[in-house]
Amino acid sequence: MVNGLSGTKSISNQTKTLKQLKQKLITKNYNEIYAHEAAHKSAAGALGGSIHIVNNSAGIPVSGFVPIKVPGVPKTKEPSLLEKTINQAKTVIKAAMAPKDPSAADYAVKANAENTLKRTQNLKNSNKKHIDYSA
Question: How many secondary structure helices (H) and strands (E) does the chain include?
Fold first, then answer.
């Protein structure tokens, strides 16, 4: 039979153990998520924003993100703007794939940037003058 004092002590020890386990999970998740997002931020350079870590209702980190400026296809054929957009799209692709474990969202950002890159390169190529040497 357990007396009231030892039962209280047991519950107190269990509560302490649960708090320690929760803190270990918080630390583990935070470190993993932060490392993933830091890879994005580092590769994004000036196009990337601050790292954001998202916690669930229990305060446990479950996801994160780094806002990134994804360029749109220019509405002009001005060569310097086209080249700037191409370089930015390449940076976004690199940043999306920077972590060792890209997520589905990372692949979606990559696909969007690849589409922008392809469309901008096509626009740039259509801007070149072709000389017909056949006569």
Answer: 3, 2
Domain ranges, residue 25: 4-127
d(CA 93, CA 38): 15
69 assigned to some structural domain: yes
Model confidence pLDDT, tens digit, residues 7-17? 667 888 899 99
Residues 6+ apart with CB under 8 A from 38: 51
Tell whether pTM > 0.85: no
Q: For residue 65, which of 28, 112, 91, 104 has the smallest C-alpha distance?
A: 104
Do the beta carbons of residue 135 and residue 108 sit within 8 Å?
no
> DSSP state, 3?
-
User: How many structural domains compose the chain?
Assistant: 1
